[in-house]
Amino acid sequence: MGVGIIGIGTVVPPRVLTNYDLEKMVDTSDEWITIRTGIKERHIADSNVNPSDLGAEAALRALKMAKVEPEEVDLIIVTSASLEMIFPSMAAVIQNKIGAKNAGGFDLLSACTGFVSSLITGAQFIRSGDVRTVLVIGTEVLSRFVDWEDRNTCVLFGDGAGAVVLREVGDGYGLISWDLKLDGSGADLLAIPGGCAKNPCSEEVLKNKLHYIKMNGREVFKFSVRVLGETTEESLKKAGLTPADLDWLIPHQANIRIIEAGAERLGIPIDKVAINIHKYGNTSTASIPLALEELVLEGKIKDGDVLALVGFGAGLSWGSAVLRWKNIES
Ligand code: UT7
Asked: How many whole angstroms from 272 Cα to the centroid of ligand 1?
């Protein structure tokens, strides 16, 4: 059974934080950030806006494009690297906000790989025949987990959300193949170490800023370049395809240099790669839908195009999903 995307919606908060704004906050420069990351600006949520607010808005937009009513949603999968609360799940909070009164659901956590993992999971539920309509939402208010005094990390991240509606799309279309991998030996390379069971909230945690994102940028960079190519090739191989068959590479937007190096290793020309990191920074689970939606709205993806969605990040975790695109009827 072909299971694919029948609607997509995204949202970013209106407030923009530019590299020039950051120059006034930490010892950095627009030139350094642009050259080393490709980021020019990012969107930051106001203090009264939570990840579930952005996620619900993106979900309603996706449902509208899909012409699906909230009551028709069977399953909601929410993925995030900036949890609203440990529990209840964000799936439950968003279910209530959008009025999806017949849906079940859960949160699926896999940091920046979360959107790919959730898309694959949602497709399996439909393939099993048990459900018809799945809503997958990646939503982030990462700005709450950023140490705004740490120039190594604060220039990278942004807030936003993206959602897709999954349904049967016809034989030969939709998810063709996938690859998901973990290497927990790299768990310390990128983490929010404090505030949960291992390092519960305490004065010590606050003093050492363990409730903020900690990253070994160089190591995560090398890992990301390697796995971007590896997982894309693995998924393509499972589909009996090669990188030359790809029409669009849609990678997690972590750093323009990671994206360019990954594409080069795969031999994919840069004009077949979705890039919008300059506008949003790294929005973790929201970055792939934000990049995909842009291509869809600009009419750049044609019916039958082969897409690879590629995620990588904390865990370490990484993965890819190869899809044959079915045009969304307007
Ligand atoms: O979404 C999950 C995946 N996350 C990622 O993929 C992030 C991966 N890592 C990266 O994108 C890059 O490693 C960074 C953008 C974080 C850093 O770039 P880099 O080229 O690896 O720089 P670096 O860490 O090697 O630092 C080079 C220099 C250092 O100074 P010294 O030691 O050479 O004097 C840093 O202190 O740049 C300095 N630096 C900065 N300078 C100005 C670090 N951050 C900044 C900054 N502005 N914001």
From this structure: 27
